Amino acid sequence: MVIGEESFGVELIDNPTSKSFIKLLPLTLDFEDYHNIEKIVVLSNKLSRDDSPSGCEANKGAFTYYAPWGNLALFYKDFGYAPGLIRMGEIEEKGVQILSSLSTFSAHISLID
C-alpha cells in the first residue's frame, strides 16, 4: 500500500474474501477516518462472503472487510468483536503508525508477490 511517499505491506490471508479483493487490484482509494479507530472506504464492488465467519475481532493492524456496508476497514486501534467483519489480513506496524497519523488520504493498493 502506498500513501503519498510512504509505502508499507499488508499480508493477506488465504480466504475467499481476500481472493475477491485481489481480483480488483490495483486500486487507488480515498479513505476517511471512522470514530478514531479505523480508516474506511466503500468499495464499488462487493467482495465474496463465501465460507466467512459471522464476524471477527478487530485488533490494531487488522485489514478487514465490513460486509454489511461493503467497505474496507483498516484498524489502527483495537476495537473488539464486530458481526459482519471479515479479516483479510494484517497491516505491518509501519502502516499502522501511518494510518494513525492521517485523517483522510488517498492510497494506492497493488499486489506484490
List the helices and strands and how they pair.
Layout (H helix, E strand, L loop, with lengths): L1 E2 L2 E2 L2 E3 L3 H7 L4 E8 L3 E5 L12 E4 L3 E5 L4 E5 L4 E4 L1 E7 L1 H9 L3 E5 L4
Antiparallel strand pairs: 1-2, 3-10, 4-5, 4-11, 5-8, 6-9, 7-8, 7-10
Textual characterization of the structure:
The protein is mainly β. It is 14% helix and 44% strand. The protein starts with a strand and ends with a strand. 25% of the residues are buried.
Largest sheet: 7 strands, antiparallel
CATH topology term: Cyclophilin
Q: What is the radius of gyration?
A: 13 Å
CATH architecture: Beta Barrel
Q: Report the principal-axis shape.
A: globular
Helix content: 10-25%
Question: How many β-strands, per DSSP?
Answer: 11
Give the helix/strand class. Answer: mainly beta
* Share of β-strand residues: 35-45%
> Mean pLDDT across all residues, rounded?
96
Q: What is the H-and-E element order?
A: EEEHEEEEEEEHE
H/I helix tally: 2
CATH class: Mainly Beta
Domain count, please report it. Answer: 1
Note the main attributes of this structure.
single chain; 113 residues; mainly beta; Cyclophilin; seven-stranded antiparallel sheet; two-stranded antiparallel sheet; 2 helices; 11 strands; globular
What's this entry about, in short?
Helix content is 14%, strand content 44%. By secondary structure, it is mainly β.
